Task: structure prediction
Amino acid sequence: MVLGLLTIASIPTLVGTCEAVSEQKKQNAEAKRSEKFNLAAACDVSHRQVEEQVDGRFVVLRDGKLYLDHEPKGSDMKSGHPFCGYYFQYPGAEFEGLVSTISDDPPMLNWIYIDRDTRELKYGNRTQTLPHIAGPWDWTEDEKWLKLEDQEAFVVMEVEDGIWRVYYDKEGDWSGLPSEGKILDVQLQRKPLCGLESKHVRC
Ligand SMILES: *[C@@H]1O[C@H](CO)[C@@H](O)[C@H](O)[C@H]1NC(C)=O
Result:
């Protein structure tokens, strides 16, 4: 009888513990999704002529679009704001969006989205994202690389000499991309801000 009582009494405790553990896990997972990171391009290093302009370059925000942090020598182009973002529930949808700071002072956030017509990666407020592709954004299983619509289909295009803009290759065969310039397949690597390589970024 005593044993029976103990057993019954211990059931709610056990259930309670399990719930606490899974709640804790959920919170940890959510916390991880909201950790800030920078983004850097990685390309096939056999592209020798352009490797230096693309591989390892950070993604920056400039004039409404996303570029690699490379300016031709002597260019007076203003340098962009380094992408510094995290995953965030997109309002009114089932998926996660991606946000980035667009300025440090005052601190401001925008959504990262794909222009449906041009396939450019852009940033803007929610209204601006509405006719376009605002997610779902994700990471690869090892959490290192950025994914959109469950694929890692990003390219950079040389839109001016030495200036590389980031695009989404939705079909995976470069169709639907403008044919303005040289195109390179890239992966976009998440660089958590605790990493040494991103120390220079205030975020
Ligand atoms: C969103 O951005 C557009 C373009 O900059 C602007 O006209 C509009 O007022 C903004 N909307 C909101 C809700 O802030």
Observations:
- The chain has three helices and 13 strands.
